[in-house]
Amino acid sequence: QQPVQSPQAVILREGEDAVINCSSSKALYSVHWYRQKHGEAPVFLMILLKGGEQKGHDKISASFNEKKQQSSLYLTASQLSYSGTYFCGTEWKGAQKLVFGQGTRLTINP
Amino acid sequence: KAGVTQTPRYLIKTRGQQVTLSCSPISGHRSVSWYQQTPGQGLQFLFEYFSETQRNKGNFPGRFSGRQFSNSRSEMNVSTLELGDSALYLCASSLAEGTQYFGPGTRLTVL
């Protein structure tokens, strides 16, 4: 079962904040976040393991809510370079494979 | 460290033909996963190889197959190509499990 990402697309102005959600119907073991710019390969952002931890670097952070089986990616004070499609990849215990959401297209305008 | 490389980068084939795509993982990575990316379906998991063995398989027809060599390089083969096989094929490597690093992809167009 593919995880569900929301919203599907969002348009922001530079400096605004964004939240992207990733929900799973199955118990999650880990959640991986990637960003893909047009014509390029997905680039790893961060991984969150079961345990409700929160991670971040620079102005991008993420949380993992084990009870809700949901992860959220937070982009604060967005920059033009944040534009792209964000994918969450979910891993279920023992599955040893990632199942990706359909992606969230983020557009940052000056 | 060199990243994941994929060859060829672009490919044009006609229906009914077959195609072989190649992926060289990051040095030391033993797991290689393949994905199909299309605008409508997003990133769809094809299969994963670890130490020359297929460890996981997605929901794709048997026309899609793969293999991994002792040096961890992997190939993916698609036989009897259909128009719907047009897509970006991405491979990703990882140590064993966890973080995956993607290659630039092979853009396959089937005419």
- List low-pLDDT spans of chain B: none
Please report which band the strand proportion of chain B falls in: under 5%, 5-15%, 15-25%, 25-35%, 35-45% or over 45%: over 45%
Give the overall form of chain A: globular
Number of strands of chain A: 11
Proportion of residues in β-strands of chain A: over 45%
Mean pLDDT level of chain B:
93
H and E order of chain A:
EEEEEEEEEEE
Largest sheet of chain A: 6 strands, mixed
Distance between the termini of chain A: 37 Å
Would you tell me the structural class of the helices and strands of chain B? Answer: mainly beta
Mean pLDDT rating of chain A? 88
Protein described:
The complex is a heterodimer of chains A (110) and B (111). Chain A contains no helices and eleven strands. Chain A is mostly beta strands. Chain B has 111 residues and is an all-beta fold. Helices cover 0% and strands 54% of the residues of chain B. Chain B contains no helices and eleven strands. Chain B has strands spanning 5-7, 10-13, 19-24, 31-38, 42-50, 53-57, 64-68, 74-78, 87-94, 101-102, 106-110. The chains are: A mainly beta (110), B mainly beta (111). Chain A binds chain B through residues 2, 30, 32, 34, 40-44, 47, 87, 89, 91, 95-103, and chain B through 4, 33, 35, 41-45, 48, 55-56, 58, 90, 97-105.
